[in-house]
Amino acid sequence: MRLLYVEDNEKLAQNICASLQKSSFTVDVVHTGEDAIHAAKSYEYDAIILDLGLPDVDGLIVLKEIKLVKPETPVIICTARDALDERLKGLNSGSDDYLVKPFDVSELIARIKAVLRRPGGALGLVLEAGNIHFHTVDRSVQISGKSAKLSKRELDLLELFMRRKGRIQSKEAIENALYGFDAPPTLNAIEVATHRLRKKLLYLGATSKIQTLRGIGYILEDDGQ
């Protein structure tokens, strides 16, 4: 899942970003309000983490701008503004959660997963496709009740296909979901990763299969669908 992290403190942003990446999130980091608005308009994010004390634009204005163009994208405010009226302003302006600094990264990760599990969110506790079960909390996969060992990139790709089961995913959509703008995929990376995942699922006896629609993209469908 791809996140946008908006934080003007570059050292803090670097540390938090590293922890989020260890938890299998793809993270884009920006340090200003203008860059945050531009990124939110230009890319699709599963969630946005927003500091309010930005150097150019107040975070609440940024929040309102983001919600105008991406009203369904959950936004978690992370800020040092801890007064009750500030928290109420943030929540009443459209944020989905409000976390006061300093905070433990594990709490932030838990809150991200919580907003993604809400109705309409991107994350369920267990994703199902045929006989494949993907447990999102510990990122384990079972096929017909047996554990399946997949690489991190294969897990990322499988989760994406399972969350969008039955919908065609173009190469561009996959790149946008799995790669940050600071780390674009290498040539043919999507094709290679998808081919490897497809072969592994077939070998493990999965009843849902990744189909290639030449010139269009890929789709995960149940066998016989």
Please tell me about this protein's structure:
By secondary structure, the protein is an alpha/beta fold. The chain is 40% helix and 22% strand. The mean pLDDT is 88.
- Spatial order of the strands in the main sheet? 2-1-3-4-5
In terms of DSSP E residues, the strand content is 15-25%
The secondary-structure element order is: EHEHEHEHEHEEEEHHHEE
Contiguous runs where pLDDT drops below 50 for at least 5 residues: none
Report the end-to-end length measured between terminal Cα atoms. 27 Å
What's the CATH H-level homologous superfamily of the largest domain?
Response regulator
Distinctive features:
225 residues; alpha/beta; Rossmann fold; Arc Repressor Mutant, subunit A; 2 domains; 5-stranded parallel β-sheet; 4-stranded antiparallel β-sheet; 8 helices; 11 strands; 40% helix; elongated
